[in-house]
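Bench notes, afternoon.
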Amino acid sequence: MYRNRDHRLRKYTIGPVGTLTPEEAKKEAKRRLGEAWQGGDPASEKSAQRKALTVSELADQYQEYARDRIKPSTWLMNQSRIACHVKPLIGNRKAASLRIADIEALQRDIADGKSVQREKRDGRGGVARGGKGVAARTVTMLGTILEYARREEIVKGNAARGVKKYSTVKRMRFLSYDELAALGLAMDTALRYGENKVAIAAIKALVLTGCRRQEILDLPWAWLDIDRSCIRFEDTKTGAQIRPVGAAALAHFLAQEGRVSTPWVFPASGGRSGVVGVPRIFTWVCREANLDNVTLHTLRHTFASVAADLGYSELIIAGLLGHRSGSVTARYAHVPDKALLSTADSVSERLERALSAVSVRANIEAA
C-alpha cells in the first residue's frame, strides 16, 4: 500500500501466493515503494499495461483464469471459438478499444463465414464453420470474457453487452419410421463398404439411447451399470446424472468388443480415446439414405419423438433425456426409476425394430 503524488491511497499486487518466496516479495515491495517515493505510480503503470492487452492476450488470460472455474467441456469449446473465430478476426485489436460496432461486425463476419477453416487442422476437432448460431454463441462467450476484463479494470465497459445477437431457432427435425429404416439400411451399406464399424455402432447407440453426441462417443465402460441398466454419468451438460438404458440399447453396448483392452465403449483406433470421425461417417450415411437437414443431434430428437408417439409424458421423456428439471432430478437422483426403465425398454425396442424395418408397414406389422 502506498500514496501516489496526488496523495491517493493505492494498492499494488506483486504476484500470487506461491509464485514468489516471502523474501522475494519483500524485496519487490521495497523496490516499488521506492518508485512511489520518487513520484512514480506502479499501480497506474500496471493498469495501463493491462489496458494495452490485445483481444488475443485477454482471451488467453481469461482462459487461464477460467480453467478450473468452468466445466472442461465448456473451456474446450471456448478455446475452439477463440482460436477459430475471435483471434483470426479481432485478435490484434486492443481490448480496451472495442466498441459495440466492432462486436456487431465480428458477429456478421462469423455468420458470413469469414473465419471459416478451409482445411482441417491437427487434433480431434472438425472443420470450423460459420453461421448465425456459431456467431451468436461466440459473441456470448466474448461478452463473458469482456465482463471478466471489466471486473479486473482492464476495460471500462463490456462492449458486447449492448449487441443484439442473432436469434438461433432450435432444430426440431426428427426421423420418421421410414427414415429410420433408410438410416439402418445405409449403416449396413457403410459396413459393407468397409467404414469404421465402431463409428457405425456409436451412431446406432445414439439412436437407441437419445444421449448427446459426446456422452456416447466418450463413454467409458466404468460408467455403464449393467446390473441396473443405466449409465452413471459423472459429468454431463447438466451435471452428474443417472440415465436409464433400454434393453435393446444395453444389448448393443454389451455386443461391443474391447471391454478388457480399452476403457472406452466406442474406442478410437488404438483405444487411447473415444471414437473420432463420427460426424464425417454420419454425413456419408445420411447421403446414402437420402436424408436431408439431419445432424447427430437429430437422433436425440428422434428418440424423444418416438417416446411421445408411444404416449409417454413430457416428464418421463425429460428424465430419459437428462434434461434439467428440479422435479426430475429430485426423483431420479440415485437409482433409475422403474417407470423410466420401462419406458427406455419400450422406446429402444421400437427404435431397434425401426432401424431393421424396410417400411412403415413392416414396422406396424412387427408391432
